[in-house]
Design a protein that fits this description.
Helices cover 31% and strands 25% of the residues. It is α/β, with parallel strands linked by helices.
């Protein structure tokens, strides 16, 4: 497969509100229905806001990251952009095609790698690739050639004709990406591509993603791995509760943090007078408390600040139970905007 002409992604005002409970919550009665006794008022309708007026634009040929915790709306965004989820409001485009109104041409333009591999374990790796190509109308000789090329590129040739039932997690993920590329998509969506992988496999996967991007494929990936976003993405959007809270290159976002360093203190108490004294320390640009009793000091230095922090805490008779110092990072950016850890 040679280089492709890159196309972009655009979304405007996406909103998705789920009104049906999960199947388990429906207790076998069927999701989306309210049951109430005669003469009683119906139960309040369930509403879960997954996307809340989210807009984004991904340039042709870009690797763009959606960074956020579980439940932030990342997978729902991918679901909308790949025609699997109908938005409650808003519109989206892949190239010039409206995602919801032109679903068939959009499906031909995109490749999707879900968060968890959904491969048919009763098939061999080669069969999975060839059948996927057939599903998208790739001619017989061409799909055989593409399958072999992808097996080689993703280092799966030695297991090509074995059932995937015994494949490791890393092999399944590589095969999932290879399958998504069988119909030569212009845009590739990767939902948490390195979740659960060991460091060596993760690095291999990153190299494969970069290589496909160099061929002209536009890539959108979701992740809650700050290192992954930093290594792969030319730009990152940080999302939480279905909203975009920051956008820029990883370096731009890290530079936007007041002071850069975060000194997180777990104190026995956090009296306002002590917090005020922390704020007046040289180099401290901000102090924030969080719901779990932590106090974050944003500063232009890290360890050098600790003796003064310890002195002020001792004078206030407040015990310091734990200290964590973080250098400028996307994790710190998330802390700055939300007051909580990315993995909370």
């Amino acid at each position: 497969m040679g280089e492709t002409v890159a196309i972009g992604i655009r979304a405007e005002g996406l909103r998705k509100v789920y009104t049906s409970p999960p199947p388990a919550a429906a207790a076998g009665r069927g999701a989306g229905f309210s049951f109430f006794a005669r003469g009683k008022r119906p139960k309040q309708k369930l509403e879960i806001v997954a996307l809340d007026d989210l807009s984004l634009e991904v340039a042709p040929g870009e690797i763009f990251g959606l960074l956020g915790p579980n439940g932030a709306g990342k997978s729902t965004t991918v679901g909308v952009l790949t025609t699997r989820i109908r938005p409650t409001a808003g519109r989206a485009w892949i190239g010039e095609h409206d995602v919801w109104r032109e679903r068939v041409p959009v499906k031909r333009l995109v490749g999707v790698v879900p968060q968890r591999p959904n491969l048919d374990l009763a098939l061999t790796a080669r069969e999975i690739l060839v059948f996927h190509g057939a599903y998208f109308g790739v001619p017989a000789a061409e799909r055989v050639r593409r399958a072999q090329e992808l097996l080689e590129r993703f280092q799966l040739t030695d297991r090509a004709d074995r059932l995937v039932l015994g494949f490791s997690g890393g092999m399944l993920q590589r095969l999932s990406i290879a399958r998504a590329l069988m119909h030569d998509p212009r845009v590739l969506f990767l939902d948490e591509p390195s979740a659960g992988l060991d460091p060596q496999t993760r690095l291999l996967l990153w190299d494969l993603i970069r290589a496909d991007n160099r061929r002209g494929t536009t890539i959108l990936l979701t992740t809650h791995n700050m290192e992954e976003a930093d290594e792969l993405c030319s730009r990152v959007s940080i999302v939480d509760h279905g909203r975009m809270i920051a956008l820029g290159t990883p370096e731009e976002l890290k530079r936007s943090i007041p002071g850069g360093y975060v000194v997180r203190l777990h104190l026995a108490a956090a009296p306002p007078a002590l917090l005020s004294r922390f704020e007046r320390l040289p180099g401290v640009t901000g102090v924030r408390t969080s719901g779990d009793g932590a106090v974050d000091l944003y500063a232009d230095r890290g360890g050098a600040l600790l003796p003064e922090v310890a002195r002020l805490s001792n004078e206030a008779a407040v015990e310091i139970r734990d200290v964590k110092i973080s250098e400028p990072s996307l994790e710190n950016l998330f802390l700055h905007h939300t007051g909580r850890s990315l993995r909370d």
